[in-house]
Structure formats: structure tokens, C-alpha cells
Amino acid sequence: MNVDHLEEAGLSVEKAFADVDQLVDYARKLSKYDNRGDLIRAGLSFQESNDPMYFISYIADQGGKFWDNDKQVFTFQTPEAKAALQFFYDLFFTHKVDSTGMPNSLDALVQGLASMAFMWPEFLPFVQIAYPEMNFRFIMKPGFVKGKEPLFSHSDTWNFVMPSYVKDEKKTATVKFLRFLASEEGQLLFLEQNPGLPIPRNLLDHEFFKTGRGAYLEPVIAAMREGFYRY
Q1: Which residue has the higher pLDDT, 84 or 177?
Q2: d(CA 114, CA 119)
Q3: Cα-Cα-Cα-Cα dihedral of 178, 184, 190, 192, to 10°?
Q4: What does CATH list as the number for 3-145?
């Protein structure tokens, strides 16, 4: 979210939204329209390439499933999926805090055409480097069900991969390099340049996530520790 826009609207900068109602209330107050009623600044953008992850998280928040184990396919023909999809539909066509005529979330944020957006958490350190003049902060998304913590659900993650064509001495060197990348030293080198959630979960206890560049993820990590996270 754009801190300047929140302050302009008299809205406080929260660590996490209490519920979906508060999120939508913020989005409405941050949206701007021209004289014809057309949206010229989105209060809450939902046009980013990882948007399906928020959709499946909100299905899981309700206790629903997005994967059919018997058929081994994704399934969205459920009441929970329909409720989650209705929420995102309403952002565009009921609350009118976003529009398909607006740029994608990243472009809208950095052009000042969106005040908030569902974004990958690494967007924050990225934008601090690419657009240092802009004032962005992170607020954790609310749970879909009032009174419940948000569940973070992801169908995949960053992985260390060695292609099958890597052979002989190159394979030995590749394995050695991958082991370094998976080590605390290797992970911290990566995280300093691209702060985000680390692959080894024991690193969540590191000072990097308490007082370092990863401290902004504290509310997400707290929810993860309570068991509200799964791949």
C-alpha cells in the first residue's frame, strides 16, 4: 500500500487488516473517480500474476478444497470457491475499487494509479530499490472468514533445480553449489538482495526477520507459526 495515499485519506497504517470489511472500507476510501464516475485511482488492485494464489488461499480460509485428490485436478465447483470468486468480482463490479481498464497492479502502484494491491511480499524491497522516491509499506491480508486468521496456501514455491542433462564433474559442482545456496550463509546472501520467506524454515528465527530487512514480514511469520501456512 501507498503510505502517502493512506495518510491523505486519514487512514492508519496497520500491520494486518482485521477482516475483509476493513479491507474493503479502506479500498473505497482510497478510490478516486472523475466527473463521469470512471475510476482514475484504484483503491485495491487485483491484477497481478500471482492473483490465483490469493483466490486459492481464500478457498482454504473457508475450509474448502481447490484440489481434487481423486481426479488429480484443480476444482473450483464448490461453494467456497464461488464465495471467494464473488469477493474478487465485487471489487470490480460492486464496490468499483478496481477496473479492468486500469494497468496491472505493479504498473498501477508505481504510477500512482492504485493505492493498495494484492502483491507478492517481495514487491516491497523491490520497489524500495527501483522507486526509492515512493513510500510503500506492507499490510498483511485479512482472513476470508471473520474471526479466523488468514491461511497462506501456495501450490508451488521457489525450488533448487538441477536439470537431468547435468552430468559427471558438472553434477558434483552443481550439487556443491546447491548445498551452499541451501545453507544459512547462502540463503542470507540471497535474502539481503531479495528479502522474502526463506526455504529453510529454521531461518525464520534469524535476526534478519526481527530487526533486518525481513522484519516487515513479522505478521506473516507469526501466522505461519500458528500453523496457518501450507504448500
Answers
A1: 84
A2: 12
A3: -170
A4: 3.40.190.10
C-alpha cell belonging to residue 84: 471467494
Buried b (16+ CB within 10 A) or exposed e, 157-186: eeeeeeeeeeeeeeeeebeeeeeeeeeeee
Q: Which amino acid belongs to residue 179?
A: R
What are the CA-CA distances from residue 103 to residues 54, 58, 189, 225 (Å)? Answer: 19, 24, 33, 35
Tell me the C-alpha distance between 20 and 6, whole Å. 17
Do 2 and 112 form a contact (C-beta atoms < 8 A)? yes
Residue of 96, 92, 90 lying closest to 33 (CA atoms) = 96
pLDDT tens profile 100-140: 999 999 999 999 999 999 998 778 888 888 999 999 999 99
With H, G, I as helix, E, B as strand and everything else as coil, classify residue 45. Answer: strand
Give φ, ψ of 42 to 5 degrees: -75, 130
Q: What are phi and psi of 84, to 5 degrees?
A: -65, -45
C-beta of residue 141 within 8 angstroms of C-beta of residue 24: no
Q: Compute how many other C-beta atoms are within 10 angstroms of the C-beta atom of residue 89.
A: 13
Domain locations along the chain: 3-145, 168-230
Give the side-chain half-sphere CA count within 13 A for 28.
10
